[in-house]
Amino acid sequence: MYFIGIDLGTSSVKVVLADRSGGMIGEAGRDYRISQPAGGWKEIWPEIWWEAVESALTELLEHMDASQVEGIGITGQMHTVVMLDQDGKAIRPALMWNDTRTKELVPEMKEKIGRTEVSYINKFISTGSPAANLLWFKENEPELFSRLAHFLIGPDYLVYRFTGVYGTDYCEASTSSLYDLIKREWSPAMRKITGLPESVYPEVRGSAEDAGIILPEIASHFHLNPNAVVITGTGDNPAAAIPTGCLGRGYPVFSMGTSGVLMYPKETPDFDAKGKNILFSFDGKTFHTIVQGVIQSCGSGYSWWNRDILCQDFREADKEIDLNKAGESELLFYPHLVGDKNIYADPELKGAFLGLSTDTGRAEMTQAVMEGIAFGLKQLMEEMQVKTEDMEELKVIGGGSRSRVWMQILADVLNFPVEQMEGNVGAGYGMALLAAYRCGAIPALEGIAKRSVSVKERFWPRAYHAELYRKKYRQYLRIYGAMKTIFTENSV
Predict the structure, then answer these.
(1) pLDDT digits 0-9 by tens, 405-421
(2) Rg (CA), the chain
(3) Which of 186, 219, 256, 413 lies 20 to 30 angstroms, CA to CA, from 142?
(4) Rounded-to-integer distance, Cα 58 and Cα 55, Å
(5) Dist. CA 458–CA 79, nearest whole Å
(6) Cross-strand bridge partners of residue 454
(7) Cα(232)–Cα(69) distance, integer angstroms
(8) Quick one: which H or E segment has residue 361?
(9) Residue 48 pLDDT more than 80?
């Protein structure tokens, strides 16, 4: 008995195969490129995703008995919106989660939303939100919009290709800025603002509920079990958090991927603090709330510095940094290379190095990049009103978490224990395990975390360095005002 997990990322798709015991026995992936036809525009034809999935899945199953696959779980980039006609064909390229073409449209939307019963949506609507991108589509491409029969979020499109079913889960719905989290329904007020017909909305289900049985032609193509179940799935950040126990046990998690995403479970939605409230349900009956905040540039900023500027493997960076001197440098790095969504809701925000001199070296600058992202996380936690006194530690996952140096810097900056997770904590693996749970191979949700991950290493804050970073953080907080003064047009 096998289970497939598919993770539709921004620049690549990853597919994994797990057995009934939860062990990962295979993985494959394919890269692709998004199109950027204008400044801030980011889009991709959904068929490119499907071709990548076909190729990766063929490789994954090449030496396996594919007929033993019982379940498939699909996850991926949240917010990216796909527009389909009545035949299920893409009308235009999907508008990506990090597309900023709506930066002038969002303030107008917020003014209208503020006068409705779902005014709390203003807390999290931003460029890249499906609501904003669909309104842009309606206003700027009316002929194409007239053909719109269905919209889906990125990974939902793959579910549709596997099953022929149009649907989404509570996570994707609640983060679309089109959904009423309180009433748990698509918001009529947002439908009026965006001008979307009611018929184009997908049905909302629990993440572990069945989306449908795999289509016969798809089963035949991959030699899969024709009765294999495809579950509804969910967004990539909750999917990655499932194996850590964030949802099953209530742990806060920081995912250091392309963006840095903080997920903090709460009993009910909290619209007073900054951060996006995500409604989540495994079964469509019991609901959880995850408050999610993001640093737009995390792993992408670190990769930019190491790969594009230094032309080095980022895994070599740890060797250059002396942790005994952490916090002693005056150099500061401002990490908001691609704008900010949660702290300032400022898509025009830029990054910066401050305090450079002729004595500054590459190791010091690399360390400053790590520190700047850690400061960004600290500020994000404060803005989200995360009460660290009620927590035992922060669990960290994602590519950036592999750096022991970065983990220690995080612990020192936050003055709080940080746990580097060991094991398979990727979103695709989380979906494979959720499919295994749906099919009965894992009897309880709590068993998912027990089977998949453990703590690799715990990092404790060091008093001397924590005090240095406390002072340095006060300087960091003054950067935003300076940046706005410098870069705002007509500022004196």
Answers:
(1) 999 999 999 999 999 98
(2) 22
(3) 186
(4) 5
(5) 33
(6) 422
(7) 17
(8) none
(9) yes
User: What is the phi/psi pair of residue 446, to 5°?
Assistant: -60, -25
Tell me which H or E stretch contains 379: helix 362-383
Helix residue ranges per DSSP H, 415-462: 427-438, 446-452
Rounded to whole angstroms, the Cα distance separating 426 from 241 reads 8
**Three-class SS of residue 273?**
coil
With a threshold of 0.70, does the pTM exceed it?
yes
Q: Cα dist. 440→65, 150, 211, 249 in Å?
A: 20, 32, 17, 20
Q: Whose CA is closest to 271, among 385, 126, 381, 171?
A: 385
Nearest to 155 by CA among 212, 242, 255, 231: 231
Taking Cα atoms as reference points, which of 226, 224, 91 lies closest to residue 149? 91
For 292-306, how does the pLDDT look when each residue is reduced to its tens digit (9 = 90+)?
889 999 988 999 999
What digits encode the pLDDT tens for the residues 447-458? 676 555 678 899
Q: How far apart are CA 292 and CA 110, in angstroms?
A: 20
Q: Please report, as a single letter, which amino acid is at residue 375.
A: F
d(CA 212, CA 163): 6
Q: Cα–chain-centroid distance for residue 241? A: 10
What are the pLDDT digits (tens) for 329-380?
Answer: 999 999 999 899 889 988 889 999 999 999 999 999 999 999 999 999 999 9
